[in-house]
Amino acid sequence: MHCPFCRHTDSRVVDSRTTDDGTAIRRRRQCPSCERRFTTVETASLAVIKRSGVNEPFSRSKIVTGLRKACQGRPVSEDDLARLAQRVEESVRARGQAEIDAHEVGLAILPPLRELDEVAYLRFASVYQAFDNLEDFEKAIALLRAERAGADDL
Asked: Which residue, 140, 144, 88, is CA-closest to 112?
């Protein structure tokens, strides 16, 4: 780790703490050359493989952007979107893979989005489950109705 002040090639760890529910480590470091202190945050990297084959770092903000489009005009707050994106990230990281297909990330969004807002779920599902015609929408709506009716019986 290079010192951000004097660019010395080494540093000493003074303190380490977990942050973000244990998904990251915050380290307080000190440079042996200039003796100034600085903080680093370490997280396990997670790469998303896009359809084109390009790898890019996982981005919670991209999930929120996609969810915002699906939830446009719906009674869903920014806090709801942020919590949902966090749940998705936790779910994806729990798989223990360093790389995950972008389509799988989209599919991981569906269950918590369904709990949040059924209309937004249908909008999002129509893309990630590749709805081709009205029958696909009708099947998805029928499934939602059947599950809601089953939940009402409990």
From this structure: 88
Rounded distance, CA 104 to CA 24, Å? Answer: 23
- Residues 46 and 145: their CA atoms lie apart, in Å, by 36
**90-110 exposure pattern, b = at least 16 Cβ within 10 A, e = fewer:** eebeeeeeeebebeebbebbe
| Cβ-based neighbours of 74, under 8 Å, separated by 6 or more | 117, 119, 120
**Pairwise pLDDT comparison (130 vs 46), residue with the higher score:** 46
Cα distances (angstroms) measured from residue 154 to each of 118, 142, 144, 145: 20, 19, 16, 15
Q: Can you read off the two tokens belonging to residue 31?
A: 């440079």
Helix (H) or strand (E) holding 132: none
Could you tell me where the beta strands, DSSP code E, fall in 1-143? 12-19, 24-30, 37-43, 47-49, 55-57, 99-101
CA distances for 103 relative to 17, 52, 123, angstroms: 34, 12, 15
Q: What is the mean pLDDT of residues 142-150?
A: 87
pTM surpassing 0.85? no
Residues 6+ apart with CB under 8 A from 113: 67, 70, 84, 120, 121, 124
